[in-house]
Structure formats: C-alpha cells, structure tokens
Design goal:
The chain has 268 residues and is of the alpha/beta class. Helices cover 35% and strands 19% of the residues. Helix 2 packs across helix 6.
Length: 268
Amino acid sequence: MIQTKPGPATPWFRPWADSSIVAGMGSRILVADDEPHIREVVRAYLEREGYEVVEAADGETALEQSRTTPLDLLILDVMLPGRSGFEVLRALRSEGSSVGVLLLTARDDVIDRVAGLELGADDYVTKPFEPREVVARVGAILRRFGRVSAAITPAPESDVPAGRPVTTFFDLTLDMDARDVSRAGSSLPLTRTELDVLAALAEQPGRVWTREQIGQRVFGEAFDTFDRTMDSHIKNLRGKLGTRPDGGAYVETIRGVGYRAARPLDQA
C-alpha cells in the first residue's frame, strides 16, 4: 500500500516547508496502522525529518497512547482493528482533544474522507500513498498549529514577532495566538482547520474566495486543487457557528465560485 521506500538521505524538493525549520523539530507523532510495513516506512521517513515517532497496531492501543502520551499529531488508519480510526477520532474529539489528526483512507473513498473531516480530522491521505506526501501533510498541519519549534533554540527576544491582535467578526472574538474563537466569553468547539478557514475568510469580509484559494491559504502547497472536501470543512464550520445576530450566515456561498465571510453592515 506504499509506493516507495526510503532511499539515501538525498534532499528532495519540498515547497511546503523550509527544511531548517522542519528537521529536528522534535514533534511526537503516533503512527497507527495494522500493517507493520506501513508503520515501518512512514516511521523511517518521519524520523529522517527529525520527528519522534511512536506506533500502534490497533485502535485500542492508539486511543490509549493518545490519552497517556503527549502527542502533536496522529497518523490514523481508518480501518484499524479493534476500534476503527473513526471511533478513535470520535472518542478523542468528544474528550476535548485538539491533537492534529491525519487520516489514512482507501483510495477514492469519498465517504471515508468526508466522514473523517466531519468528525474533526485535519487532513487525509489516500492509500496507496507516496511517503513524502505524508511528510508534506504532517509538516503543513504542524506549521498551521504552531508546533514547529519544539527543538529549536529560541530566538533573541528582540527577534520574536509581536503577538497577533485579537479581532472581532460580528459577535465572535478571534484570538489566533490562543487558537480560540468565542462568543460572549464561551469558546466554540472548532477544529484547527475550521479555525484557520474562518480566520482566513474573516480577515477580508466580503472578498470571494474559491475553494482552491482557501485550501492554498490554509494548507499551503500540500493542498490538492482537485479536492472538494473543503466543502465539508465549511459545512461543519457553519454548523458550529450558527447564525449571525441579524439571522444571516457568517460564511456565505457564492454559487459557482466559492465562499466569502459576510460583511458587517458598517463595512458595506
């Protein structure tokens, strides 16, 4: 189910990441798959990039390790024995875990992909896969969630960028440094991808974005321009946000084009 094996440590083109940042970052990743060969190959590629890797061969073990071991990301096969990847993901999200999740799904199984995203997965890779694609998507997820510097020497205080300002969007408060969206002081249970989509759209209310533009903004070069699962992320986001105080939607569909954040009346 894997298309290549690790070769010599020869650099390969990675438009999605600066190797000086990704390599040696020290992030801990759980690879959960019942096929030893898949775990072995994925582990080899990840460790070559500086990640720490732990393994699980079934759903029960994956869930237990996720609860007891500090993890930055899970690579989770949908068809795990014992508990499926979906069941593991559902349990973690119901417990409030925000750990990153990359699903491994059957080729062209749209139902699996959409179901996983609706349960709170951050991204997916279809089998058979190229291991370098897994590394690309892992790096993209971790960069989006600010987990790329675990093993990097802190920069001098003068070089540390200022925090991003807290912004408002209708009755919502977006604090991207805290990775939080709240209404009247209560946090909304958005996944990380949903939060990034909302932040990208709300940055320019009224601007129309295509699915591809949103995907490139959120996922970077790892985004597949033919992927329509962005619709699932936005559907989930809308369901969690509910309606604006004036009864409209926070995220509006522009038929045949894409999506936009609603423009407040005082900005119209």
